[in-house]
Amino acid sequence: MGSYQKLLGLSRLSSIPNVANPFYTLQKSLQQNRRNRILAGSIRQSSSYVEEMRRAWERDPSSVHDSWVSYFEKYSSIPTTHAPSLSSLPNSDELQKIASDHIKMLLFIRSYQVRGHYMCKFDPLGINDANLHVDKFSYRGSQEQADSVPKFLDYRTYGFTEADLEREFYLNASVSGRGGLIGSKEKKKLKEIIQIMKEAYCGTVGVEFTHIADLEQQNWIRSKFEKPKKFEFDEQATLRVLDRLIYSVQFESFLATKYNTTKRFGLEGVDSLIPGMKAMIDTAVELGVESIDIGMPHRGRLNVLANVMRKPLEEMLYEFMEGTITADAEGHLLGSGDVKYHLGFTMDRPTHSNRNVHISLCANPSHLEAVNPIVEGKTRAKQHYSGDTERKRCMSVVLHGDAAFAGQGVVYETLELSDIKGYTTGGTIHIIANNQIGFTTDPRFSRSSPYCTDVAKSVGAPIFHVNGDDPEAVCWVMSLAAEFRQTFRKDVVVDIVGYRRHGHNEIDEPMFTQPLMYKIIKKHPDVLKIYSDKLVAEGRVTREKVEEMKAAANTVFNEAFEKAKDPNYRPPPSAWFGTQWKGYKTKFQLGKNDETAVPKDTLQSIGEKISAVPQGFNIHRKLEKMMRDKRKAVCDQEKGIDWGTAEALAFGSLLLEGTHVRLSGQDVERGTFSHRHAVLHDQKNETKYIPLNNLSPNQAMFAVFNSNLSEYAVLGFELGYAMENPNSLVCWEAQFGDFANTAQVIIDQFISSGEQKWLKGSGLVMLLPHGFEGQGPEHSSARLERYLQMCDDDPDYIPEMEDTGVRQIQDVNMQVVNPSTPANYFHLLRRQIRRDFRKPLICISPKSLLRHPQCQSDLLDFYDNKGFQRVLPDSLEDIVPDKEVQRLILCSGRVYYDLAAERDKRNVKDVAIVRIEQICPFPYDRVGQMSIRYPNAEIFWVQEEPFNQGAWGYVQPRIATALRDLNGKEAFYVGRNAAASPATGSPAIHQAELDRILEDAFAPNYKHEQWQWRLSDLLSKTKK
C-alpha cells in the first residue's frame, strides 16, 4: 500500500474474499497474468477506491464514471468464479488517473483540514497574524500571493487545472464513520469543494485538530466544521448575543467614565469573551454540567464578576469607593483584603433556559497562571464529594492571557495532569483572551512557537482560534468547546484573538512601545458598534432596538452606582468560605480540639487489616516481613511502632470515622524512603492492593496517588482539593523537602496568605522530609526558616494562652511542626481533622528516623488522652533533681536523637533535653514552664542547620519573650556556621561539623561567641 494511502487510512478490499465480489475475481485474474502485472499493481494499490466505486454504483449508478457502470453491470448480474475479461475494464491509463485524482483530492482536502487555519482572518486589527510563522510560507506566484493563497492550499499544487473546476468528484471515503465533507456520500465540483473548505477552515474561525490521535474526535470536529452555514443564529439567539455584548462593552465604558484614574484591567478589545462564556455555560448546563469552577487572571475579571458571575454591581462599585476590606456579621475585620481584580465569588444562577448552575470564580494573585492547578483540585474534590465518577457534572474553566499561556511553566505542568488517574477532572475548557501583547512585549518576542496555544498540543487538545470581533463566531466556538468537553471529557482550547484598547492598565501609556499598533486601535471601532451595525445592515435588528437595549443596560449600571454611594449602604456580611465550611469557626470564634486518642481495640483492628493481604496475593518477601513486624508491634508487643505504622494508624482511624484521606506527591504510594507501602503490588501479575481501603465496608475513601514529576502544579492541585471541602485530610508529600521550593508561588501566594487576603483557608498538610544526614546540599533541608519567616505571629507578644493552644493556632496563618516521635505524628495528623477550624500544616518529617531504633512509640501513646504534645519534656529516667540541672537544651526534630546519644555516651546527668515539637505558633507557656522547672540551668538552642537557617532566627526572640518576665534568661546558639548552601557535600566534613555541634552542646564552659569554627580545624579533625 502506498504512503499516501497509508496516510489517508484507505482500506484493503482483499479482506473481502467473496467470489461474488467482482473485484475479487478481477484481482485474481490479474495476479495470474504476468503480462498485465503493471495494471494489476495499480489496481491493487487503488483497491479501496475500486471497492468504493462498486459500493457507490450499487447505491446510485449515476454517481460513478461510465466505464465503471458497464463493468459492474456485466459482472454483477450473477455470481461467477470466472475471471473477467480485461477488455471490458476501463483503460489502464484512465483507471490510474481516476484513482490518482481521488487520492490527490483527499490530500487537497486534508491540507485544508491541517493548514486552513493559517489563512483565517483572526486579527481584528489586520496587522498581525496569530501564527508567527505565516510569513515563512511559500506562494506560487504574484497573483496567488496577492490572493494570499499559499502553495499547500492551491489546487494546482495537486495537479488540478482550471479546467477541473467544473469537474465532479465523488468524496465518500472508505474509512467508516468519517465525518465532514469526505463522509458526505455526494458528488461535488472542484470549485464547490474549494468554497466549502474555505468556509469551513479559512473564515473567522480556525481549528487545529489533526494532531489528535483519536480518529473519532477528529471526525467529530470535521463533522462540525465541514457543513454549510455551520453557525446560524435565529432572532432570539441574535438578541441574546447582542444583549450580552452590550452589557460587556458598556460595563467597561461605565467604569471608565466613573473611575477614569483607577486601575481595573479592563476587557476592552476582547469584549466578546462575555457572550462567549455565557454561551459556553448555557451549552454545558444543557449537557449535564451542574457546577463550574473558573480560574482567570486580573484582566477582564471585573467584567466576568459582573456579567458572568452576576456579583451584585453595588457591591463591586462599593469596592471602588471604599476598598475591599471585609467584615463578619459582628463587624470584625476579616483579613487584609486584596485589590478588587483579584477577588473571587460564588453564585448559583440560572441559564437562559432556567436551569441552575453553581459557578465559583477562584481568587488569585498577580502571579499569572498560578491559579490553574487550584481550580483543577477544587473541581476534582467536587467530583469526589458529589459522586461524579463520569466527571460530567462538575467542570473546570480556566482563562489565560496569550503571553502567559505560552510563557508560564505551570501551564504545561497543569495540562499534564489532565489525563493522569489521580488528577483528571474530565477535561478543562481553556480560554485565551489573546490581546496580542504581553505588557509591552510583542508576540514574536514572547514565544518561539507559531501560536500561543501550541503547548496544549502536548495533551492532544483541539484548539479553536476565533476573531474576537465576530461575536457570533465566538459564541459558536465556545459552545462547541463545551460540547466537545462533555462528549470526550478532554481538555479543549479556545483562542479569542482581539487586542488591548488601553495600556497594560488604564493609566499606562502603550504608545511608548507599540506606536503603530495603537494608532490603529484608536481608530478601530469597538465590537459592539461593528456587530450592531452589521445586524442593522442585514435587517436582523433595528437601530431603535439596539439603542433601547443599550439604555436598559445603562439604567442598571446607574442604579447600582447610586445605591453603592448611599452613605447608609454596606455590603452584606462576607460568607466565610463556602457552604461546605458551614459550622467551622473563624478566628473570632473560639474553636476546640476533640480528643485525638483512639481506643486500643480500634487501633489493633486497624493493625490487623493493614498487615494482611488477600488470599492468593503474592506479596514481595521483604514486605512480608515488614508487615509481620507491623502486626507484631501493634497487636502483640504493643510497642516498637515506627513512623510508617503510626501514619497508617492515623489514616485508618480517620477513615473509619468517615473522613476522606488523600495523599499525593512523587512516589508517595511506596514512599521515597520505602517506609509506607500504601499500595502493594502482586509479584506475579502486578495487581494492586490497598490495605487502607479494606478496613470496613462503611469507611471513607483512602486516595493515594503517585504524582508526575511536578511540585508547583501538584501542590496547587492538592491545595485546591483541600480548600473545597474541610471534611478531608489532604496531604502533599515532597520527595525531599528541598524540592518544595519549586512550588514557592503556591506557598507564598496561597497557603501562607490566602486566608488573610481572600478568606480562603484550608487544612492542607505539607509533609517535607528534612534532616542533615550527609546527603549534600540538595537533600538535607526543607528550608524550615522560610516557612517560619512567613508566619504572622508577633515575637514580642505572648498571646492569650489556654491549655490546648487552640486560640493561639486560630490567630496565626499556619502551623509549622517538627514532630520527633511516631505517636506525636499520629496525634498531629488526627488533630488536623478533630477540631472545628482549619489551618495549613507544614510538617517537617524525618528520613533516617523512619527506621531509627530509638524513634518508636508504645501503643499506649496512641490511646491515652495526652494528644499531640507541643513540647516533649526530657525523658531521661536518672537525671539529677531539677534544681541541679545545669543546662537546658531546647531543640527540634532529629537532632534530639544525636544529642540524647551523645549525653548517654558522656554519661551526663545534669543536662535536660527538651523538644519543641510545635514551632509555630510558639509554645510560650510550655517553654516558660521548662525554664521554671530548671531554675539554675542555662538555656541552649541546638540545631543541625546553619545559623541563618533552621528555626533559630524564629525561636530566639520568642524564647526571650517567654522568659522576659520569668527570669530574663537568654538562649545561646549551638549549630552550624552561617552558610549560603544548606549543607556540605563532603560526608567527612559533615561528620566533623556534627561532632563539633555535639561537643559544644555539652561543653562545660561554652560561650555563645564561640559558635563559629574554622574549616582548617574541621579538616584537621577529619584527617585524624
UniProtKB/TrEMBL annotation:
Listed SUPFAM superfamilies: Thiamin diphosphate-binding fold (THDP-binding)
Pfam families for this protein: 2-oxogl_dehyd_N, E1_dh, OxoGdeHyase_C, Transket_pyr
EC number: 1.2.4.2
Subcellular localization, as worded in the UniProt entry: Mitochondrion
Reactions catalysed according to its record: N(6)-[(R)-lipoyl]-L-lysyl-[protein] + 2-oxoglutarate + H(+) = N(6)-[(R)-S(8)-succinyldihydrolipoyl]-L-lysyl-[protein] + CO2
Cofactor(s) required, per the database record: Mg(2+); thiamine diphosphate
Domain Transketolase-like pyrimidine-binding stretches: 641-852
SMART domains assigned to the protein according to its UniProt record, in alphabetical order: Transket_pyr (SM00861)
GO molecular function: metal ion binding; oxoglutarate dehydrogenase (succinyl-transferring) activity; thiamine pyrophosphate binding
One GO cellular component term: mitochondrion
Function: The 2-oxoglutarate dehydrogenase complex catalyzes the overall conversion of 2-oxoglutarate to succinyl-CoA and CO(2). It contains multiple copies of three enzymatic components: 2-oxoglutarate dehydrogenase (E1), dihydrolipoamide succinyltransferase (E2) and lipoamide dehydrogenase (E3).
UniProt name for this protein: 2-oxoglutarate dehydrogenase, mitochondrial
Organism: Guillardia theta (strain CCMP2712)
Phylogenetic lineage: Eukaryota, Cryptophyceae, Pyrenomonadales, Geminigeraceae, Guillardia
